[in-house]
Amino acid sequence: MPLARKIILIICLGMGTVSVVQMIYMEWLLEQSILEQTKNQVIVFLKGLERDIFRLGGPTAGAPLQGLLEDEIADQDNFHTFSVRSLYIYNPAGILLADTRPGVHGAKDLSGHYGDVLRTGQPYIGEEIEWEPNPQSGEAVPQIDIIVPLKKDDQTLAAIEAELDLRATMAIISSTDDRFERDFLLMVLAGTLLMLVIVWLVMYRSLVAPLLRLGEITGRISKGDLSARVEGHQRNEIGALGRAINRMADSIEKLIREMEDASLGMMKSLAKALEAKDAYTASHSGRVTRYSVRLGRYIGLTDAELELLRQGALMHDLGKRGLHRHDQDRAARGMSHLQRRQRERVHQPNQSRRVDASSSSSMTRLRPAALAR
What we know:
Layout lengths: L2 H53 L7 H12 L8 E8 L5 E4 L13 H8 L3 E2 L4 E4 L6 E13 L2 E11 L1 H56 L14 H41 L1 H20 L4 H12 L10 H8 L7 H8 L13 H11 L2
Antiparallel strand pairs: 1-2, 1-6, 3-5, 4-5, 5-6
Helix pairs in contact: 1-4, 4-5, 5-6, 6-7, 7-10
């Protein structure tokens, strides 16, 4: 798999993981917000009920108080996010003064939060949702308790507790969660696509494109184009790699230049040896070299091509060094009575006595000129 795809895949996995965690956390916050809103509505409802209780004469009103609580249970059309399962009032002794629950119930244990409301005068709001079975259907019903003190002249006379049925609240939470998840996923998808486009553009410009250029340069160098160099001066790892490739190309070019100089020195030594042995052949090679360079310049060869032509012309007769002395003398003097086999040896030097052109690039480029007759 290409590096760019791996990076994008890692980014997608990371963003997906973060998005899932974020969605779960935001759903929890949303649920808590809806529950807090419901609890605040219940507090407002109970405060209003407190005013009605004191208009009747207070928590000791007896039968009118019981009727008021039952009317409130029966008339819950205005409640949209919760419903009240039961209401009851107890005094500082824990005795129930009014109770909408069916059956007979004993006094409240004031050692816990029931007594704390009376002692501190502060409301109690249940934190955890309790699941209680419905007496009629047996279905588990989400429930929470809220207790509000009944005060007069800053004195707590009793407390009223409301047991809430949160099925409507949970339905709202579920519906809201569904909409939230859908909208959140669409938003995350759009944001992810936009982020991927931005990341791809940035990554392509700063990573993929430079790497492709480096690959192109190294490919040209491997094919023998030692003039290829990495341009630009990026101050990062890509730039360091480009500079390393340039240094490598410089080293290769220097090494090949040294090899060519050594090969050329060897050719010149052979030419001087031939000149010392046969002045005619040496002057002939010089004339061929001069005429070849003039012709090459006339037809528009480059300086590099002219240098190759000059070197090839200089060494085109070095094959005669491989002939026996008797054949060299006769070939150098251009004797017309050379035997056929000897003429072939002069014009078609075999592998044992021609310059080996397989050991270096410079020899390979000189080979056509050196073997031309």
